[in-house]
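Tutorial, part two.
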Amino acid sequence: MKHSYLLLFLLFQISLFAQYCTNVGPTSTIDSNVESVVLSGVVGNINYAGCPGVVGLHDLTQSVNVSLNAGGTYSISIKFGTCGGNYAGAGEAWIDFDQNGNFDTYESLGTWVGTPPAPVQNWSFTVPPNSVNGLTRLRVMQREQGTIPLNPCGTYQWGSVTDFGITLTNGLNCTGYPGDDQNDAIIVGALPYTDTRSTEVCYSNQNYVYPSPDIYYYFEPNPLLAEVQVSLCGANFDTFLSVVDMNGNVVAYNDDSEDCAPQSALSFDATALGPLHIIVEGWGAFSGDYTLQISASYVGLNDTEAAAFNAYPNPSQGRLHLTPNTGAYQLLNMNGQLLQQIDTESESIFEMHNLESGVYLLKNLASGQVQKWQKI
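Running the prediction step on this input gives:
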């Protein structure tokens, strides 16, 4: 409704699991080069001298680290210069405040264009007050013959690129907020599944389809699932919903559902699918509160037609009658996990009083027929 998503998802599949780009910077050590970087933090200082030049990325994140407080204002001094001849170029610096492994345009501290020798650049910046505590990076880049804005992942012949370690403190403690990326995804439990959260606090942009914060869920379809339904209907913001496999290939996505636009809802065929990530985010930069609902239909399960076997009473307080002499059954939970094997050749009444209250699946191994049975 709003845009064509083909290009977005081609980019999405490529960059879904991206980390910091490190194959960057110059192929030559001569001429244009950052000569100095100075930054004082609440703990630690950067006093960097840039010459002689270094090919590629000069990664100092393990040896140079400065702590900055969320909400604090700081000044960084950078001299864009040379280790040889004086040639025109451009310079820029970024701090990855949202810790998404990407130096975004809104994280730029300042830019420079000129020809060395040039005055030291003094830039003031404020760490976003809602920054999450943790480790991130400062990247300083100079590129001969470059133009603003610079590409923080660019490669070129002359210049330099140096990364420093930054520790953000006095911000949000998000240790109790799983789901910020695919490595800490929220595990979807038994279906139907419901989870209520907000993307406004402690979540960052990790998948790059939109700049909005996103939350990852891990879902592993079981062999009995046929179609899975996922809904964000009722959220208080314009949502975007996607389902991808472990390689980042898109299984399904939705922007505006026909039932609840501008919220999202979708369904997909789960047969023969492996583990998946369900990703909740906002359209554009939107964020807010939502309730994720996941339900499913099951292979061989038909509530409207007579079953090939009879399980009664249904619901039951624990006693289960099954049609005798129809072979073996499996009692499964709603995730398809086997709880008990049942043989009806010698008996037809089974005591299930030890089961927790809930809905279960009974599968006849001979016919493949599946039927719901509720323990109350």
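The chain has three domains: 21-169, 182-298, 311-375. In part three we will examine how such features are distributed along the chain.
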